[in-house]
Fold this sequence. Notes:
alpha+beta; 27% strand
Amino acid sequence: MGEQARTHTAALMGDFSPLAMIVIDPFVDQLLDANPAACEMLHIDQTLPLAAPFSHRLSASLPLWVSFTDEALTQKAAWSDDLVMLDMLRQPYRVEVYAQRVDDSSQLLLTLIDRNKAEQRRAKAELGRQHRQGGGWLAAG
C-alpha cells in the first residue's frame, strides 16, 4: 500500500471511528487534532483552532497524566482506566485511555472511552447474555 493510500485510510479510520481519538504533543502541551467522535465527546468546535494548552483539560489529574504520557513515550504504548479529562465546558469525564506513540515523534494518539458509558454498555451486554442463556433476572422471578 502506497503512502498516499495509507494516509487516506488512516484519515478514514479516524473520521469514521465511533471512538474518540485525539493527537497530543505533551512536550509542547498541545492538543493537535481530534476526530469527530472526540469533538462530540469533549464539546470541541471543529472549526476553531485548538489553542488552549492540553493541560487545561486535565484538572487535578495532571500528575497522573504526566506519568501516563511518560510511560506511553517510553514504552511506545500505554493504557489506563483511572484518568479524568475535562471537556470544553469544564465537565469531567472519567476516561479509559489507550495511547500510542506516533512514529518516533513526541506525539501521542490517544483513544478515549467514557468510562461511565462503557460501564453502562458492559452491564447491558451482561444482562443480554444472561437473558440469552436463560439465567439472570428472568430465572429469579
